[in-house]
Design brief:
Blueprint: E1 14-15, E2 17-22, E3 28-33, E4 36-41, E5 44-51, H1 55-63, E6 65-70, H2 76-84, H3 92-96, E7 100-102, E8 109-111, E9 116-128, E10 131-143, H4 156-159, E11 163-165, E12 170-172
GO molecular function, one term: FMN binding
InterPro entries: Flavin_Rdtase-like_dom, Flavoredoxin, Split_barrel_FMN-bd
Family: Belongs to the flavoredoxin family.
């Protein structure tokens, strides 16, 4: 029998992404989120949800752009810090000892030391309860060569992204691969639609 937990933001996993933005004075800022995901394949788009009270919200609204830097496990402390401190009061890049890089494609910075980054241009935003949901068209994905597989694509086991467990507030790493998508299901010998 399953136990009911009621209406909660409890799903596994949620991503740990660091949203890069510039404020009205051009100061780089970064904020960690877990409310986000891929939402469209053509055009390629990703969503993030921010509360209006967050410093990053005004930055993204004003600049119409954001980046998503994907921290690896070795940067869990820095990613956690980016979600606790406010860019209104501190320079989070300086405090964490990390480097902002100005995107050449969108009006937002990304974290140099993190192995992957998505550069996004805001194409929609709308209010859902206490959050504003931003849809960003992915203009480019960049990845360090050290995290690429033999085919030249990002390898999740080399990127070692952090995932978040809501409600219990725990960070986790990603485990080993368990099957090839759009292939392992064929073992059921059931008709495909």
């Amino acid at each position: 029998m399953k136990k009911s937990f009621g209406a909660k933001t409890l799903i596994f996993p949620t991503p740990v992404w660091c949203v890069g933005s510039y404020d009205k004075d051009g100061k780089p800022n970064v904020m960690t989120i877990a409310w986000g995901g891929i939402c469209c394949s053509s055009p390629p788009c990703v969503t993030i949800s921010l509360q209006k009270s967050r410093y990053t919200y005004d930055n993204v609204m004003e600049r119409g752009a954001y980046t998503l830097s994907v921290p690896s496990e070795q940067y869990v402390r820095e990613a956690d810090y980016f979600g606790m401190a406010s860019g209104k009061h501190v320079d989070k890049f300086r405090e964490a000892g990390l480097t902002p890089v100005k995107s050449e494609l969108v009006d937002a910075p990304y974290v140099k030391e993190f192995p992957m980054v998505l550069e996004c241009r805001v194409i929609h935003h709308y209010e859902i309860g206490v959050h504003i949901h931003f849809v960003g068209e992915i203009v480019d994905v960049k990845a360090d060569e050290a995290v690429l597989n033999d085919e030249g694509k990002p390898d999740v086991e080399k990127v070692r992204p952090i995932i978040f467990s809501p409600e219990v507030r725990q960070y986790h790493g990603v485990g080993q691969g368990i099957g090839t998508a759009f292939s392992i299901g064929k073992q059921l010998n059931a008709p495909l639609k």
